Amino acid sequence: MSTIVTRSGKGSPLTNAEVDANFTNLNTDKLQLVVNGTTSSATITPAYTDSQYNVTALAVSATFAAPSGTPVHGKKLLIRIKDNGTAQGLSWNAVYRAVGVTLPTTTVAGKTMYVGMSYNGTDAKMDIFAVSTEV
After folding, report:
1. Sheet containing 43-44: order of strands
2. Distance between CA 128 and CA 117 in Å, rounded?
């Protein structure tokens, strides 16, 4: 089944150029991802506005502080962590809550780890629902 999108007030379908322009505007105006990060730090503070926060060469044990800024219910955050080739300890602020997973307490030497979460405005928690480490 196909969907034909028409111009407001006109019966003819949008041209390819109009579809492309609308898609470009949608991508740049509405779906822009915010990626930030650090190489290494003992205190790691992502922002609630981040879509992904990368830690690229963690060289010390680290605590993930509560994200900075104003939280928005349902906002997703993906944290990517890789150490400097030596396993490092991880601890988490109380705002991070494991849901069906176990919060990681250490990195795996030289392996990339992803931690996926969503802000739960009802409970004021970053609900962590995915933890995965490179094999």
Report:
1. 43-44, 62-64, 90-92
2. 4
Q: What's the pLDDT tens digit per position in 97-132?
A: 999 999 999 999 999 999 999 999 999 999 999 999
Indicate the domain borders of the chain.
33-133
63-76 residue pLDDT tens:
999 999 999 999 99
The answer to whether 80 touches 35, Cβ cutoff 8 Å, is: no
Count CB neighbours of 39 within 10 A: 11
Mapped onto helix, strand or coil, the DSSP state of residue 16 is: helix
Closest CA to 79 of 116, 45, 48, 110: 116
Query: What does the pLDDT read at residue 32?
Result: 76
CATH of domain 33-133: 2.60.120
